[in-house]
Amino acid sequence: MDLLRHLRYFVTVAEERHFGRAAERLHMAQPPLSQQIRRLEAEVGVALFERTTRRVDLTPAGAAYLERARAILAEVDDAAGEARRVAAGTVGRLAVGCVGSATYSLLPALSRRLAEELPGIEVAFRGEMLVADQVEALRSGGIDLALLRPPVDDPGLAVTALREERLVVAVPAGDRLATRRQVRVADLAGTDLIVHSAGRRSAMYDVVRRLFADAGVTPRIRHEVGETSTLVTLVAGGLGAAVVPEPVGALALDGVAFRPLVRPARSVELAVAHRAGRTEPHLHRTLAVLTEVVRDS
C-alpha cells in the first residue's frame, strides 16, 4: 500500500509540476509530500524530478516512470471497481437451461429484463432441455440455473417452485376438437397422440401417462419426439393431438388450436434449480429478476 500511495503522490506532483499545488490537491502539507517523493526516488535509485524554486520538471527517467505509474494505478482502480461490481452481483457469467415451455413463454421476457437491469452479466441460454439433462448439466457445471419440472430427487440441488401451469390440448386447427371450448381427456380416446419421448426421460411423458390413467383412458400414442417445438409442428401438420403446458401456446403456430382441459385436470409445476450452497451475488441477482418475470407473466 505504501508503494501505491507513493505512486499517487508522484503522479500528482508530475501533473501539477509544483509541490505546493500538488500538496493542496492531496490535502496534505508540502514538506511531508516532498519527503515522500525523495523517499520514492531513493527506492527507485534515480532522480525523477528536476527541482527549481519556481517549478518541478520531470527527468527523462521520471517521464518514463510516469507512464508506467499511471498504468499501474489505472489497473488497481479497475481491479477495485471490478471487485465492487462482483460483490454487488452486477457482473458475471451464467448459463441457463430451460424446458420446452419455458423456452417460449419466459425466455424472451427474461432475456430482455436481464439486458435492461443487469447488462454486466453475460447469460447464455439453452432451450428445449429435458429435466434429466438439466440435472446432469447442473451437477457437472454445464449450466448454472435450470427452469425445470419437479420432482427432482437430488439433495445436491436447491429447487424453488415458481408457478403451476395448466395443461391444455393442442389439436390441428381443422380437427373436430378445435371447435370445442374445452376438452375432456375422454374426448381424446382413439385420437392419435404426439408425446415427449419416454426414452429421453421426459417429465411430460409421465404427466400425460398419469393424466390418461386417472381418466381411465388408454392413450393411442403414435409419435414420440424430443423437443416441444417439434411436437407442436407435428400437430400443425395434422399428425395428431398433444397435451402440453398452457405456456406452449406462446408458439402460436398456424394450423394449431389450443384448448383447455376440463377441470379438474392435472397441472404441472415449473421450478428453478441450482447447485445447493452457491452464494455468488450475480446468480442470486439473476434469480430475483427471474422471479419478477414469472410473477409478471
From TrEMBL:
Q: Which domain of life is it from?
A: Bacteria
CDD domains for the chain: PBP2_LTTR_aromatics_like
Where is the HTH lysR-type domain positioned along the sequence?
Answer: 1-59
Under SUPFAM superfamilies, the record lists: Periplasmic binding protein-like II (SSF53850), Winged helix' DNA-binding domain (SSF46785)
Work out whether the entry's keyword set contains Transcription. Answer: yes
- PROSITE patterns recorded: HTH_LYSR (PS50931)
Q: Does the keyword Glycoprotein apply?
A: no
Q: Which InterPro entries match?
A: LysR_HTH_N, LysR_subst-bd, WH-like_DNA-bd_sf, WH_DNA-bd_sf
Give the record's keywords alphabetically.
DNA-binding, Transcription, Transcription regulation
Q: Which family does it belong to?
A: Belongs to the LysR transcriptional regulatory family.
Protein name according to UniProt: LysR substrate-binding domain-containing protein
Question: Which organism was this protein described from?
Answer: Nocardioides humi
Organism lineage string: Bacteria, Bacillati, Actinomycetota, Actinomycetes, Propionibacteriales
